[in-house]
Design a protein that fits this description.
Blueprint: E1 5-12, H1 20-46, H2 48-51, E2 52-54, E3 60-62, H3 64-71, H4 90-93, H5 99-114, E4 131-135, E5 139-143, E6 155-160, E7 165-167, E8 170-172, E9 175-179, H6 184-192, E10 193-203, E11 208-217, H7 228-231, E12 236-243, E13 249-254, E14 265-268, H8 271-292, H9 300-339, E15 341-348, H10 365-373, H11 376-389, E16 397-401, E17 423-426, E18 431-434, H12 435-451, E19 458-460, E20 467-469
Parallel strand pairs: 12-15, 15-16
Antiparallel strand pairs: 1-11, 2-3, 4-10, 5-6, 6-9, 7-8, 10-11, 12-13, 13-14, 17-18, 19-20
Bound molecules: zinc ion.
The site of zinc ion has 8 residues, from loops.
């Protein structure tokens, strides 16, 4: 069972050698759609009684076939189905656009409309970023062989022009050739996967055109053997991971042995991140206050501009730290996976924010601020992706709802209260333990208890909703001693 992952590969077009004509064509490819989409949205809204319906849940659905009947004439079908006149003839309005392109724009417009976008006479038209997705059928990547004294660009991408050019009464498509800045890194990455589509993007900040390739990457089979049998010689182990606020992640590895050693406990956190984070937060809040105070000195726009820049920088720094964090976790998991037949179970803190809103319970604003900083689902999806790319089978990285895991004793399983933040003391078995470790251990135990439930045959991933048969996890039954109170 392999799952592929979509990766984006950014590549710069050699803008300095682009001719003005090519730039103009790029601009047209990315800009023209906006007008057509706007037109479509207006047509849908005008005819909403005829082509829209409401679902039981109250959502609006647009009938695409009926919309086509209003907008597009047809000529290549049977005589009785032919449409020669339609109320809103788009082909007359945009004569250079092909049928396929109209349909792409139609789909985007329908999506926009269903999401609640409405045209208004006072509203300016949609301002989409200058970008255009181009599917694999509409471009080719060409590599010219190396010749002596050949300093010219060797990598080109040819994009089939969607504007129909008419030659002797038949439409034909020209190609727009763009020179690429391809490095050895790019070439290596391209070899790993298959190109699914590409996106043309205009970067306003540098005024450059870029190409974003979307690669479908198959995980490397080197790490985990594809046959289940060959890994079964290793002893089974379950790694429970608890995502937290002060400590981003805590891991506890349950092995066939009955006791936890220091090696099987892992805290992932960086002191530096807390410092950096704090500094940025302080700066941002100061600036925000400054901007909110109605400053009459006329420097307000400067503050807003600086605020925007700072937010952007903060986002980038944060992203770098998250990636570093994911890297650390994945490395640890890899070392464990060499020793054990490993299964990773992550607790998904879905309801962690519930009951801690403003004015509820004991929450302070500082605590709430921390609570909303770390994006759990981003961390989870990145971790999942990184593991799958390294050859982990999807059923080996599971997500479970962590409800109740931090309020139960990880030894005897009874519900306990938390006297001090950070520690859990169980009055029944007189056992004191770190609260994050308790969470991690309980997540692993929760997973194991699923295996011994009567009449259950599948286990559901909380994050993706995928269902996995329990037969994948039969080896884990050897860890049942962790479920008994010790
Ligand atoms: Zn206990």
């Amino acid at each position: 069972m392999m799952e592929d992952v979509v990766k984006t590969l950014k590549m710069r077009i050699k803008n300095e050698v682009l001719t003005t004509r090519k730039k103009e064509r790029l601009r047209r490819i990315t800009g023209r759609d906006t007008k057509i989409i706007e037109k479509y949205v207006r047509i849908i809204h005008h005819n909403r009684r005829k082509i829209c319906r409401r679902t039981k849940k109250g959502k609006i659905r647009v009938h695409r076939g009926k919309l086509d009947k209003l907008t597009l004439t047809t000529s290549k079908v049977k005589e009785e189905e032919k449409r020669t006149t339609v109320p809103h003839d788009l082909k007359k309005m945009f004569p250079y656009c092909s049928h396929n392109e109209f349909q792409e724009c139609r789909d985007i417009a329908v999506q926009l409309y269903e999401q609640g976008y409405r045209p208004r006479s006072t509203r300016p038209p949609i301002k989409r970023a200058r970008r255009q997705l181009i599917n694999a059928k509409r471009f080719i990547l060409v590599h010219l062989p190396k010749e002596k004294d050949n300093t010219l660009t060797r990598w080109w991408v040819g994009i089939r022009d969607s504007l129909d050019t008419w030659k002797r009464n038949t439409p034909y498509h020209q190609k727009l050739w763009l020179p690429l800045e391809m490095s050895t890194f790019h070439q290596k990455e391209l070899k790993k996967g298959k190109i699914k589509s590409l996106e043309l993007r205009y970067k306003r900040s540098t005024r450059e055109w870029w190409v974003y390739f979307q690669l479908r990457v198959l995980p490397s089979p080197s790490f985990y053997p594809t046959k289940e049998k060959s890994s079964s010689s290793l002893p089974p182990a379950v790694l429970g991971i608890d995502l937290g606020i002060n400590i981003p992640a805590t891991g506890v590895l349950l092995t066939p042995k009955n006791k936890l050693t220091n090696k099987e406990i892992k805290f992932w956190y960086t002191k530096q991140w807390n410092k950096v984070n704090h500094r940025y937060k302080l700066k941002l809040s100061r600036l925000q206050r400054k901007a909110a105070l109605n400053d009459q000195s006329g420097k307000k726009h400067q503050i807003y501009r600086f605020l925007g820049l700072l937010r952007k920088r903060y986002r980038n720094v944060k992203r770098a730290y998250i990636h570093q964090f994911i890297n650390d976790v994945v490395q640890m998991i890899e070392t464990y996976a060499r020793m054990y037949d490993l299964f990773v179970v992550v607790g998904y803190p879905k309801n962690v924010r519930k009951g801690k809103e403003k004015g509820k319970g004991k929450s302070t604003r500082y605590f709430r601020r921390k609570l909303y900083q770390w994006n759990f689902s981003l961390v989870l999806s990145l971790l999942r992706r990184a593991l799958i790319l390294r050859g982990f089978a999807p059923h080996r990285i599971l997500t479970l709802d962590e409800r109740g895991t931090s309020s139960h004793c990880s030894r005897c399983g009874k519900e306990v209260s938390r006297p001090v933040r950070g520690l859990i003391h169980c009055p029944f078995c007189n056992y004191t333990y770190h609260s994050d470790l308790t969470g991690a251990r309980n997540i692993a135990r929760k997973f194991l208890s699923h295996l011994f439930r009567p009449r259950t045959t599948t286990i559901t991933d909380y994050f993706t909703g995928q269902k996995f048969s329990l037969t994948h996890y039969t080896v884990c039954r050897g860890l049942s001693h962790w479920l008994q109170s010790q």
